[in-house]
Amino acid sequence: MKRRDALKVLGSSAALVTVLPVLASGKKLALRLDKAEKLREVGGSVLLKIKDKDVLFIRTGEEVIRALDPLCPHKQCTVKYDPGQDLIICPCHGSTYTTAGKLLKGPATKSLTAFEATLSGDRIIFSMD
Ligand code: FES
């Protein structure tokens, strides 16, 4: 696949990116920050398509990055991060979550699925398990 193809925006508005497995562990993946420029600043977020799944990344601190499954457990709408409120909100029926994915307000009855993610230099190391 050509680089231009890998970066094209898909129907879900998630950008398709290429990630590399971290050599020490087959389950962990590495995403270079130059593939997700919005995550260089605290408060930045980006929705990326990785291995056929959407992943919402949010930079919540200098050293803190969150990676979440953006599908709302209520009726599967794609949630969005609101940096003004520092909350994740579902545009369909208003379910509200912390940036760690914890449910604050329904109608959803479950929290978002959060993935392990850490910053390591210019890379995000994360898993999707
Ligand atoms: S689909 Fe998210 S609140 Fe209904």
Overview of the molecule:
- This protein has one helix and 13 strands.
- The protein has one domain: Rieske [2Fe-2S] iron-sulphur domain (Rieske Iron-sulfur Protein).
- The radius of gyration is 14 Å and the shape is globular.
- The protein is 3% helix and 43% strand.
- A hairpin with a 4-residue loop joins strand 7 and strand 8.
- A five-stranded mixed beta sheet has the order 1-4-5-6-11, with no helix packed on it. Strands 2-3-13-12 form a four-stranded antiparallel beta sheet, with no helix packed on it.
- With 129 residues, it is mainly beta.
- The longest helix is centred in the first third of the chain and has 4 residues, at 3-6.
What's a concise summary of this model?
Helices cover 3% and strands 43% of the residues. The chain has one helix at residues 3-6, and strands at residues 15-16, 20-22, 25-32, 45-50, 53-61, 64-68, 80-82, 87-89, 96-97, 103-105, 114-115, 117-120, 123-127. Strand 9 and strand 10 (103-105) form a beta hairpin.
